[in-house]
Write a structure and sequence with these properties.
4 strands; single chain; alpha+beta; two-stranded antiparallel sheet; elongated
């Protein structure tokens, strides 16, 4: 879709004081290139110069044949519990070793 006008178009910008203003900027749409791309890809080129034309183009595109797309998704799981289990077991073993040696309980 080639959207916009040819020539000078108002573009919203912000001035030095932070206010929103419209500044005229040159607009050049290469319609020949867009038509060539549409022709090579078995598509269709649309030209919209105002909102009404754009809404008509969207309505026409919406009437085209819809193709159902199937999608395959793959999820990669990374399990992190092994580090916590190893740390917990190490602390249990350290507690068992220290309870029969240096830090044993007195009756």
């Amino acid at each position: 879709i080639g959207a916009g006008t040819q020539g000078i178009a108002p573009i919203p910008t912000t001035d030095l004081f932070g206010r929103a203003t419209l500044v005229g900027q040159p607009v050049n749409i290469d319609e020949a290139l867009l038509k060539s791309i549409a022709e090579q890809t078995a598509g269709k080129y649309f030209r919209a110069q105002d909102r009404e034309a754009l809404s008509e183009i969207y309505a026409e595109i919406n009437q085209l044949e819809k193709t159902e797309v199937t999608e395959l998704r793959y999820l990669r799981y990374t399990e992190h519990f092994a580090n916590f289990v190893a740390g917990g077991l190490a602390l249990l073993m350290l507690g068992a070793v220290l309870s029969v040696s240096l830090f044993r309980r007195l009756p």
